[in-house]
Amino acid sequence: MKTSLNRISQKGDLAKAFRYCLKxxxxxxxxxxxxxxxxxxxxxxxxxxxxxxxxxxxxxxxxDTGGTRAAIFYTIIQTAKLNGINPQAYLTDIIQRIADHPxxxxxxxxxxxxxxxxxxxx
Length: 122
What we know:
- The protein contains seven helices and no strands.
- By secondary structure, the chain is mainly alpha-helical.
- It folds into two domains: 2-32, no CATH class; 48-120, no CATH class.
- Helix content is 57%, strand content 0%.
- It starts with a helix and ends with a helix.
- Helix 5 crosses helix 6 (87-97).
């Protein structure tokens, strides 16, 4: 890129792109030195896509309280997904039994501890 940069018009888009890359070269190639790093952020982009698509719709939640409640539900749904749980099945089961569930054992209903009622046999 350095060699090519000297051969092309300095005002062109290609020269701007080369300068951008060269200034950030260490960050752009860091994944080659650490096997834990991904080459792209596609997984993160896919994870936040539902949030960005819904952003405009959320302006119509009605109030700050409505927004807070929606945020809680979106968090629960995403946490269930991250734990390999069907969010609809999880919420259906939790809503059916939370009123009778002892408050001291509420951690049993968290997505990472949850056992569906049908499996428990209760």
